[in-house]
Amino acid sequence: MAENRLILGTYIGSKDEMPNVIRLAESVRTFAGRFSKSPIWLYVPDDVIIDDKETLARLQALGIDIRTFSFPKDAAWFYYAGKVYAAAEAERAAEGKGDVLAWLDEDTIVLAEPVDFDLAPGVVLAYRPVMHNRSGSLLAAPPDSFWSRIYKKLLITDEMLFPMVTPADRQTIRAYLHVGLLVVRPERNILRRWATDFESLYKDSVLTAMCKADQNKWVFLHQTAFMGVLHIVARNEMVELSDRYNYPIFFEKQYGAVEPFNSVENVVTIRCVVSLTSMGPDWYDNLAGPHDKIAWLKERLR
Q1: Which is nearest to 92 in space by CA: 67, 59, 62, 128?
Q2: Which one in 60, 120, 236, 302 has a CA-CA gap of 20 to 30 Å to 53?
Q3: CA end-to-end span of the chain, whole Å?
Q4: Is the whole-model pTM more than 0.90?
Q5: How far apart are CA 260 and CA 94, in angstroms?
Q6: For the chain, which residues make up each domain, given as ranges?
Q7: Are 88 and 194 in contact (CB under 8 A)?
Q8: 73-110 pLDDT per residue, tens
Q9: What is the DSSP letter of 120?
């Protein structure tokens, strides 16, 4: 029997991201309802030293468990490589200790009880689609050379793929999951499989050359690698979370979208992927939703 119904895990690649972690933890302790006391594990690369006494005291007060890890040095050039290996470490540690592990990017904020993190029997993975089609594969067109190479390396067939719609630009693409929010059952080795498949991709000379020539491919190679889990997770074992999760406030202001992301009414988790400059100085006056939650966000998004 696992000790915890839910464990929350996150990762930072540098000390500059620490304020985001504190904000995430504060939001969990404030708004997560029956999950507000869930363990929060922070994974930090072993070459990132956190020695600020005030920061450490705040982390301790919030009950954040700091865990160090290492990852292959030859992977370090690839964007977010550390996050992949941190996720694998978190899943390994959570096995037997938690029924469910929610792996969240550090710029996540929880605004309501994440009831859908409590996975139903038979479900082993909950996810959201990628936010927009910046690097996905359009369903209406054949896969390009980049995705064709990924499918070949990961042995993914057409029968394994399924359509999904990106929330920001409403593009129908082949299955491509957002790795900033993954909810898994630790015993199924989903995040560890991700690390194995990422290693297969980043060591491929053809994909490396593509990443060097195209920033989008470089940034998102780690995310494409997650599709290898289709080998170990059946379609009926995964569920797409609603748009109340991973909601990117004011996404349209920096990246474009068919509709504005300007309301936190009934939203469970938000993502702060847009710069405050793009959001504008009066962003809180343009955000709809409960006044107490907007006031909370205004206090912490500075």
Answers
A1: 67
A2: 302
A3: 42
A4: yes
A5: 37
A6: 4-133+176-188+231-300
A7: yes
A8: 999 999 999 999 999 999 999 999 999 999 999 999 99
A9: P
